[in-house]
Amino acid sequence: MARPPVEKANKRKYMLEKLSGRVFLFCALLSVISLLLIIGFVFFKGINPFVAEGYSFINFLFGDDWVPSEDQFGIFPMIVASIYATIGALIIGVPIGLFTAIFLAEIAPKKVAKIISPAVQLLAGIPSVLYGVFGLAVIVPFLQNNLGLAKGQSLIAVILVLAIMMLPTVVTVSETAIRAVPKSYREGSLALGVSHIGTIFRVVVPAAKSGILTAVVLGMGRAIGETMAVILVAGNSLIVPTSLTDSVRPLTTNIALEMGYAAGVHQEMLFATGIVLFSFILILNFVLAKISAKGGN
Amino acid sequence: MVMTTLLSKHNKKVKEDLQQMTESNGKTKISVRDLNLFYGEKQALYSLSLDIQEKEVTALIGPSGCGKSTFLRTLNRMNDLIDGVNITGDITIDNENIYQSTDVIKLRTKVGMVFQKANLFPMSIYDNVAYGPRGQGIKSKKELDKIVEESLRGAAIWDEVKDRLKTSALGLSGGQQQRICIARAIAMKPEIILMDEPTSALDPISTLKVEELIADMKKDYTIVIVTHNMQQAARVSDKTAFFLNGEVVEFDTTDKIFSVPKDQRTEDYITGRFG
């Protein structure tokens, strides 16, 4: 059988080369396009009431009342609930996550680390609705019984669930950062007669600072964006929380609960809620970029 | 040209310092008896026995992988950090067996260490030097200031850095960083300082400065230095131990090792026939 002439065969190769380049480019663009479409769509729908229908954006942000049937759309309680829930989850989740990371990277014998590490990573793979179910079945009744609440669904329940949910992120990212600290720092410190724990807190953790901050910001992003687990344990009352035991409705929950039946301005206001949420995430990403740029130096 | 004059000046200074110090008091500071070390199954040190004199510079020479750094690290128990290391035999410092006592922190306070590569922490010069004393619970700023200045003067680098104590130590040159490392070790007021090829990453001029510093530090500290550079061993040390394949082949005064070695292998090594 005669082989095709060399030139012809090469031409095919070049065609294929070009074609595969295009395919890869298209795939890469797909995610950018999706991002732009989602942002565009949310903003287009969400800005409408303020631009076309004369609603005040200030009243939207700082209004206390959300009564769609009476044309009142204030999301201030939800903003506060989201912020409180996130900060609370950080206060509990970050120290536990950081200590876990330190333990895994610096203290645990290899055998123990080999059991705990995969367990923590598996925690990240659990669907969020299951966290919600766990919260509802265990944490909520526990709070109800032990704090004497009429209703266990509360800010504190949200905080606890979110703290557990952010653990995998905080642990994995800070563990990586801690492991990346040069061995020479540890040796230098130990050789100066500083104890193991002293070395960890005075040299290793400071040297891993930017990675640990990244872990915190990523954990924060997870907490503020979480929806499903929160719906189940938040209680969803539309009040500005004044105590940990108040029933709350964070931003994400508001969208998920009402989008199914909302129409007209009500629906657009839910998109506007999405814009606020998105802004939070955007700010977090900006902070993250700043941190990693600083860490690079 | 500049190098040669610098070198000869340097050699002269080192020699003078040595002459001043030849009247060693002869007190044994570190005593090693029948020391064996294993990395898992693999034996790295074979029944070492030697005595290191107080306020002398003892050089450990030998080809790569001969166990000299491993031996150095047994003296402040840095090998404890490595999994699977097993040690038999005795090392006593001031008549105290350092492997029987469990107080590693105390040992490492007494036995300072300077590493091959300057390993300053990512903090200011001041904080680096004050790191050890702070770990011992010294908080008073006045006291820390004093320790930092004394240590930096002791490492002959005070004049170069006194105006930038609060700036990052990682901005200094390699030679300066290494001398800050020495200052950091001095700040703990140790009695023994271990140096693991402290000049191998330095340029010739910085090397000279560190060597002069070692010659000068001898009056206050017992120094054990691992070096690849035989001229360096000849210049700075009183005693020299030649290591080969985990054994001490010969241990004697530096003069003898470099002029009339007893063992053929020592002679081959120092004349550059291998290594």
Automatic annotation (TrEMBL), chain A:
SUPFAM superfamilies: MetI-like
Chief site of localization: membrane
Spans through the membrane: 21-44, 75-108, 120-143, 155-178, 269-288
Pfam family, one: BPD_transp_1
Keyword entries, A-Z: Cell membrane, Membrane, Phosphate transport, Transmembrane, Transmembrane helix, Transport
PANTHER family: PHOSPHATE TRANSPORT SYSTEM PERMEASE PROTEIN PST, PHOSPHATE TRANSPORT SYSTEM PERMEASE PROTEIN PSTC
Protein known as: Phosphate transport system permease protein
From TrEMBL, chain B:
Function per UniProt: Part of the ABC transporter complex PstSACB involved in phosphate import. Responsible for energy coupling to the transport system.
ABC transporter domain mapped to chain residues: 30-270
Membrane topology reported for the UniProt record: Peripheral membrane protein
Name used for this protein in its record: Phosphate ABC transporter ATP-binding protein (PhoT family)
Chief location category: membrane
Keyword Repeat among UniProt keywords: no
Record lineage: Bacteria, Bacillati, Bacillota, Bacilli, Bacillales
Gene3D superfamilies assigned: P-loop containing nucleotide triphosphate hydrolases (3.40.50.300)
GO molecular function: ATP binding; ATP hydrolysis activity; phosphate transmembrane transporter activity
Gene Ontology cellular component list: plasma membrane
UniProt keyword list: ATP-binding, Cell membrane, Membrane, Nucleotide-binding, Phosphate transport, Translocase, Transport
Species whose genome carries this gene: Ureibacillus acetophenoni
Localization: Cell inner membrane
SMART domains reported for this sequence: AAA (SM00382)
GO biological process, one term: phosphate ion transmembrane transport
